[in-house]
Amino acid sequence: MYPTPLYAPAGHGAFTDVYEPAEGSFLLMDALEKDATVCLEVGSGSGVVSAFLASVVGPGALYLCTDVNPAAAQCTLQTARCNHLQLQPVITDLVQCLLPRLNGKVDVLVFNPPYVVTPSDEVNENQKRSVMLHSQNHGLFYLVTVSENHPIVDVLRDSGLNGELCLTRQAGHERLSILRFSKSSLSTTGSQEPS
Ligand SMILES: C[S@@+](CC[C@H](N)C(=O)[O-])C[C@H]1O[C@@H](n2cnc3c(N)ncnc32)[C@H](O)[C@@H]1O
């Protein structure tokens, strides 16, 4: 997926004694590519969150962004371009077209769903489908919620994820929260059990 960097000078001219990349080099790069961090934002909209994530984590990771709205995918691409970042928008419902290939392979999963109080069975289905992509052994899942949707923590606990309140802020008449889920409990200072 990632192009091999240009390495023309190695093994030639002033660099004759410099090891020219060979099979071992390419195998090593393939292994590194396989283990590279995968970030996925579901419902990327403008792409600003993924662009921010890409600025923080750096160019070594793959940034996938899904949205059902084709205009959002286009906008995400534009946001990436004007920030000189690489984002990969995909038009799909939630994570549908990424399954099963990315099952268990996503290291950072981000979802800021439309802010509506969602019936718990619907929460159940939507979040579980997304969570299937979450890395088997590590990885973090950041979910924007309103306080009425905090029961999602219990739903996802059944899928083996522990949730905690990461940040909370009043926005007009709504109290928005960022819930952070991981396979094992994070004991980050300032985090607490969501109520
Ligand atoms: C609240 S906006 C968040 C946009 C952006 N992530 C942000 O935080 O600024 C929700 C986004 O989810 C998208 N969306 C809604 N339902 C979706 C679905 N079933 N699958 C993928 N994206 C969806 C919407 O088109 C919208 O862009």
From TrEMBL:
Q: Which GO terms describe its biological process?
A: methylation
Does the entry feature the keyword Nucleus, yes or no? yes
Q: Where is the Methyltransferase small domain?
A: 23-119
Annotated keywords: Methyltransferase, Nucleus, S-adenosyl-L-methionine, Transferase
Q: Which InterPro entries match?
A: DNA_methylase_N6_adenine_CS, Euk-Arch_PrmC-MTase, SAM-dependent_MTases_sf, Small_mtfrase_dom
Citing just one GO molecular function, the answer is: nucleic acid binding
Give the function comment from the record: Methyltransferase that can methylate proteins and, to a lower extent, arsenic. Catalytic subunit of a heterodimer with TRMT112, which monomethylates 'Lys-12' of histone H4 (H4K12me1), a modification present at the promoters of numerous genes encoding cell cycle regulators. Catalytic subunit of a heterodimer with TRMT112, which catalyzes N5-methylation of Glu residue of proteins with a Gly-Gln-Xaa-Xaa-Xaa-Arg motif. Methylates ETF1 on 'Gln-185'; ETF1 needs to be complexed to ERF3 in its GTP-bound form to be efficiently methylated.
Cited PANTHER family: METHYLTRANSFERASE N6AMT1
Protein name according to UniProt: Methyltransferase HEMK2
Originating organism: Cyprinus carpio carpio
